[in-house]
């Protein structure tokens, strides 16, 4: 089990006015899955990702990632376990693109500089950027390029788990397409497990092996796309079967589920 | 072209008196002072809509343009009810319906009762204690990080440190020299007036020497650097918080204390005594020149008499004070930076609070040192 969230309660705010974000939330992600985490605005999707990264503490319940409690994430070599793509990239604004991507490798301090540089350039090109972009500063990049650099940075140490927060938000359709193609091919080649928060139904249908729907402060259904779409719940009906949902669903391939390794 | 100004006229129709709107009842037209006055005068001049036996109908058909502001004015004039007779196009009706649907009375603002204010005071005190805890944690983490640096010096954040040394130290040299020089000149001139009365011209050296080396040099340098570097630190770390760079760092396993706070604290601890000496020197040069002009005390005499007038313990004390100032300014800057929320107001407030707190801290610590070391060097 790559990600194991069990009876999670997330509560913000002072004790007099608590705001409950998650209530008794369960979520399990197995190796090799691409899970789309969908839900309405404010339903706590980004907060759930942050719980998996150990950036928030559970009020109750536990979050285990790669067999260890999430609060232990973020130690030495964290980048070799989990890569995170933040919603707006969160690139280090003082560093060039190459330094951003190579950051985690340099932190370990044991590899020669030339090797680090080569590895970073490879990841940059895998993410769809040109070698000439390596010297640019984050403020010189367009939105799509920022996301690609952030993806290269997340993947620099080939972590088994990749977390993405709205990867296609603000991207034009062509960039979204190539981003999905990239994620798909990386998933196949590197056996990545991906948990992706997204509103983009096209991405959900094209890429995901499973969909987890976050509503009423918990995951109401977690399963293959067709199963989720057929689930009877008012939120799912509105989300997937509204005008956009139906159009996007037309692109679903006929059911022939890919191998689901445990 | 028809006159666009919004107006209302009354006509008599077979169904009864009717108010006919004309012109453009839109935000652009109605926000002109003259147009608004005219329109409200026209509306006031109409017989009251609910006058018995003279139910007023409304005709919107001849309007050139109608938007939500026009609709709001009508809706309010109608007392938030539909009139019995309304002649309007379907689009105008849709606009009126939307305004009707969403017009509400906002809830009355909560009055703050004395009990609530009392509770707020308590909450404020608890918040202050939380802040104190955070600052203590920061200081503790800094000490642990310094130990870590001593144990493995090769893995220290040396590049960050050198960058900060430049921007906090080298770049501050011109301004501190200028301010120091001018303070020295002013101090010398003012003291000269008094000393000449007593024929104690030579004591200008003692006065300037002790006050500048022991107190004014370090404190002035600290205040200048608090404004310069304290605000820069808060702004840098605050923006990193807003753009989630801090989250990205912790996700990648980078210790914030070791990579962000330690280089800044160390840099300011190194830079502050050096800048303090630099400022003191500039002030002494200024004072020396002013003493020459005002009292005829030659620079040669000044330089010769200075070591005798001022004990070297003063310099040691000043340097020690500066190191403490430097570390605390950096810690206060980091503390406020880490509390910045994702909005511009919070960033401005945090930066201001950081500088004010740093300067206050400098004055307090200086007073503390003055009391504790009052028998040293004088």
Question: In a nutshell, what does this entry contain?
Answer:
Chain A is of the alpha/beta class and 262 residues long. Chain A has helices at residues 45-53, 97-108, 113-126, 143-155, 173-190, 201-207, 225-230, 234-241, 243-249, and strands at 3-12, 19-29, 34-39, 60-65, 68-69, 82-85, 161-165, 193-197, 210-215, 218-223. Chain B is built from 13 helices and five strands.
Describe the structure.
The complex is a heterodimer of chains A (262) and B (378). Chain A is of the alpha/beta class. Helices cover 36% and strands 23% of the residues of chain A. Chain A has helices at residues 45-53, 97-108, 113-126, 143-155, 173-190, 201-207, 225-230, 234-241, 243-249, and strands at residues 3-12, 19-29, 34-39, 60-65, 68-69, 82-85, 161-165, 193-197, 210-215, 218-223. Chain B is built from 13 helices and five strands. In chain B, a hairpin with a 2-residue loop joins strand 1 and strand 2. In chain B, 71% of the residues lie in helices and 7% in strands. Chain B has helices spanning 27-30, 33-45, 68-77, 90-102, 114-151, 158-169, 173-198, 204-242, 245-251, 256-295, 299-309, 312-337, 344-372, and strands at residues 7-13, 16-25, 57-59, 63-66, 86-87. In chain B, strands 1, 2, 3, 4 and 5 form a five-stranded mixed beta sheet that branches.
């Amino acid at each position: 089990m790559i990600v194991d969230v069990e009876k999670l309660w997330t509560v913000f705010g002072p004790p007099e006015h608590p705001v409950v974000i998650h209530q008794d939330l369960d979520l399990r992600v197995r190796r090799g899955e691409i899970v789309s985490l969908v839900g309405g605005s404010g339903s706590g999707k980004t907060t759930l990702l942050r719980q998996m990264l150990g950036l928030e503490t559970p009020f109750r319940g536990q979050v285990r990632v790669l067999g260890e409690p999430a609060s232990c994430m973020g130690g030495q070599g964290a980048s070799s376990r989990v890569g995170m793509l933040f919603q707006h990239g969160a690139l280090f604004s003082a560093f060039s693109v190459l330094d951003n991507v190579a950051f985690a490798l340099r932190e370990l301090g044991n590899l020669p500089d030339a090797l680090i540089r080569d590895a970073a350039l490879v990841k940059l090109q895998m993410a769809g950027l040109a070698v000439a972009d390596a010297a640019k500063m984050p403020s010189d990049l367009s939105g799509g390029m920022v996301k690609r650099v952030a993806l290269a940075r997340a993947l620099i140490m080939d972590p088994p788990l990749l977390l993405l927060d709205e990867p296609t938000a603000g991207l034009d359709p062509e960039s979204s397409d190539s981003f999905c193609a990239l994620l798909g091919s990386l998933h196949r080649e590197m056996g990545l497990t991906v948990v992706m928060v997204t509103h983009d139904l096209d991405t959900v249908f094209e890429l995901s092996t499973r969909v987890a729907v976050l509503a009423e402060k918990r995951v109401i259904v977690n399963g293959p796309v067709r199963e989720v779409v057929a689930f009877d719940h008012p939120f799912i009906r509105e989300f997937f079967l509204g005008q956009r949902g139906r159009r996007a669903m037309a692109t679903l391939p006929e059911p022939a589920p890919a191998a689901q390794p445990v | 072209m028809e006159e666009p100004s919004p107006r209302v006229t009354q006509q008599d129709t077979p169904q009864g008196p009717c108010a006919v709107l004309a012109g453009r009842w839109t935000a652009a037209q109605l926000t002109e002072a003259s147009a608004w006055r005219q329109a409200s005068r026209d509306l006031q001049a109409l017989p009251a809509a609910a006058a018995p036996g003279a139910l007023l109908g409304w005709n919107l058909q001849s309007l050139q343009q109608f938007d939500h502001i026009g609709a709001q004015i009508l809706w309010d004039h109608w007392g938030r009810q539909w009139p019995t007779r309304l002649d309007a196009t379907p689009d105008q009706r849709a606009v009126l319906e939307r305004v009707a649907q969403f017009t509400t009375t906002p809830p009355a603002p909560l009055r703050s009762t004395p009990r609530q204010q009392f509770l707020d005071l308590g909450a404020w005190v608890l918040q202050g204690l939380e802040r104190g805890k955070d600052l203590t944690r920061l200081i503790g983490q800094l000490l642990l990080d310094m130990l870590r640096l001593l144990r493995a010096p090769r893995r220290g954040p040396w590049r960050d440190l050198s960058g900060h040394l430049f921007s906090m130290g080298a770049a501050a040299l011109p301004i501190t020299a200028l301010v120091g020089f001018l303070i020295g000149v002013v101090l010398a001139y003012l003291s000269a007036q008094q000393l000449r009365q007593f024929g104690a011209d030579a004591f200008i050296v003692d006065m300037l020497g002790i006050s500048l080396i022991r107190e004014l040099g370090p404190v002035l340098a600290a205040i200048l650097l608090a404004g310069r570097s304290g605000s820069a630190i808060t702004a840098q770390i605050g923006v990193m918080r807003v753009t989630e760079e801090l989250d990205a760092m912790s996700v990648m396993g980078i210790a914030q204390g070791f990579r962000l706070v330690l280089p800044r604290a160390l840099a300011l601890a190194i830079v502050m005594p050096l800048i303090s000496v630099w400022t003191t020197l500039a002030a002494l040069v200024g004072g020396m020149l002013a003493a020459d002009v005002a009292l005829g005390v030659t620079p040669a005499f000044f330089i010769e008499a200075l070591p005798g007038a001022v004990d070297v313990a003063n310099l040691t004390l000043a340097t020690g004070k500066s190191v403490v100032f430097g570390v605390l300014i950096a810690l206060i800057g980091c503390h406020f930076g880490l509390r910045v929320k994702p909005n511009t107001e919070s960033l401005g407030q945090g930066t201001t609070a950081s500088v004010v707190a740093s300067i206050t801290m400098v004055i307090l610590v200086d007073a503390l040192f003055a009391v504790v070391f009052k028998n040293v060097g004088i």
